[in-house]
Amino acid sequence: MHVARLSLTDYRNYERAELVLGPGATVFVGRNGQGKTNLVESIGYLATLGSHRVSGDQALIRAGADAAIVRALLAHGDRELLIELQLNRQGANRAQLNRSPVKTRELPRYAHSVLFAPEDLAIVRGEPSVRRRLLDELLVQRTPRLAGVMADYERVLKQRNSLLKSARARGLAAAQLPTLDIWDERLVQLGSELIDQRVALVGELAAPLAAAYHSIVDADHAPGLRPLLSIDGADPESETPADAAPRSAAASEAIAAIAGDGASATAVRFAEAIRNLRPKELERGITLVGPHRDDVVLLLNGLPAKGYASHGESWSFALALRLASAELLRRDSTTGDPVLVLDDVFAELDRLRRERLAAAIGGFEQVLVTAAVLEDVPEPLIARIVHIDAGHIVEEEATTDA
Fold it and tell me: How confident is the model at residue 367 (pLDDT cuts 50, 70, 90)?
């Protein structure tokens, strides 16, 4: 799949922009702050329903405008799809597919992309939320319905936290909160599916991660991943298991009630963790267990990459994770390769890693690169150059083979 045409209206610093694209590599060149990243960010948003730079949509709408519009014509073989997304300053966002209204969460079913950015270093060195987001964005692109499951889980979590905070403020005990059990059941139902999906994805990433890391580094550092689950007593901050209370007959009945009939092993573990942590949750007024508290340990040579890996190794691990994600999407998608977006990545890499990364992604159908300095981009990726200045496409040029 590739983006054949991109149109922006009131998006970031673009009042209007029209860009015709094609297969192969395109480099967007311009000084910092001119709008290169804004172009590729809009493509990434269609695939993940989020920006890699900000958490909300308001910053994506041009100052003074009520809404921003992103249109992309996607091509795969002889088939073309027109995707349109309107980001509203007030009210819900709206989406269309071939001019017919669809739910916004349906867009990742059609638009697949993988974005590499300087912020990716936080995948290795940052907080657990960064790694959770990496997994969840990939899950949504592979199985779009999970966007609904994630949204439902967040709503239930918000309601449950509100109830726990209210109980703490009023000094209420669990027995005085009959609705808490209802939220517990829903939390376990939705959360267990997310946990199982993430764990399965971590397993699938193992082989392509090892291959991608080797392609960038050409060394056997045994990269790996291991889920760190709060339902099993793990604390992502300390990795120290919590003490579990002995299970009585009454506790077993309570767990069964929360998990539901025919519950999976994950649901039972989740329900038991909720029972064990309920006194602490009432004390703190917050939900202490669930997929929103999980993490993934990234390993190099059997040691956690966070804290042990060098700067270069951390960068290589982050890039390998993105490459592994692209390989999974390429393997499973009926629309071909995902669009690869490299946002100012080469400036962060030494010459050898630049060349090896360029070689690793050379076989993908479409690669979009941003750079402040064209010399930072390996020559195999300089097939077409687009110059950007202050939210305007000022010049396009195609390179020719010698």
Answer: very high
